[in-house]
Amino acid sequence: MRITNNIILHNTTGNINGNKVNVNNLNNQMTSQKKIQRPSENPVIAVRSLRLRTTLSEIDQYYENNIPDAESWMKVTETALANMKRILTDIRTQCTYGASDQITADDRKTILTQLEKLRDQVYAEGNADYALNYNEILAIMKAKDVELEPAENTYQDSTIFGKFYGNSGGVTDSVLEYMKETEQNEDIKVCKANGAAECKKALMFLQRGRLPEDFIEGMACEGGCVGGPSRNEEIIKARKVRETMIKSADDRKITDNLKRYDMDSFSMHR
């Protein structure tokens, strides 16, 4: 094979361009501290990076939240057990004193009253809990005669779709509205499953290949998250008040709200 000057020039140019690309990639890696800029550059590394990020998030969750919570639970339980031991000791003392033949009937009535109070203390310690739910907070406020005054409905930080996000079907409506605003004219059918029973039914149809919709939005709580166990009012009453307040919101768009946030400042991967 005859090696010409053009072949030598072509190979040299190719090598120089290849080295320039490699240098540019290395500069990008040094500047961004990332080995790849897009998942398509190296899917294997991208998958490994996502797995590592997930693992680190789980470790942070265990170290920063789960372990302190577990320690707090153990302290509450230990305190409750110590108090119950003290109360049971007092009960035994009272019972021993009441078994004496030298006390009067009035003394025994006094002992009975004290035993009833000690019994209630045992029940209270047995119900010791680390976290308060909304119903317990509401009960405390009622016991202390705390009355909340209604606030003016001036908080308009999200769109109507954002406010309806916690309702059954709210996620679907938000996604479809965003697609409409960004001119993504796709014919998408979504099954809105309201409550655990409807979720189970939709999954059963999906498993048997009889689900006509493309996606399933499932809310285990009837009415959505707003009808969950954290509510402190009846579902129908709370829904009526909530919908009345939401209808008074302004008509800003989802895309307008998204412009207020730097989408690169947080990760959408969990």
Summarize the structure.
This protein is mainly α and 270 residues long. The protein has helices at 5-32, 43-98, 105-126, 134-143, 160-163, 170-181, 196-207, 235-247, 254-258; strands at 190-194, 215-219. The mean pLDDT is 83.
Note the topology:
Layout: H1 5-32, H2 43-98, H3 105-126, H4 134-143, H5 160-163, H6 170-181, E1 190-194, H7 196-207, E2 215-219, H8 235-247, H9 254-258
Parallel strand pairs: 1-2
Helix pairs in contact: 2-3
Helix fraction by DSSP (H/I, runs of at least 4): 55-70%
Structural class: mainly alpha
Shape: elongated
Amount of beta strand: under 5%
Key structural traits:
single chain; 270 residues; mainly alpha; two-stranded parallel sheet; 60% helix; elongated
Description:
- There is one protein chain.
- With 270 residues, the chain is mainly alpha-helical.
- Helices cover 60% and strands 4% of the residues.
- Strands 1-2 form a two-stranded parallel ribbon.
- α7 links the parallel β1 and β2.
- The chain starts with a helix and ends in a 12-residue tail after the last helix.
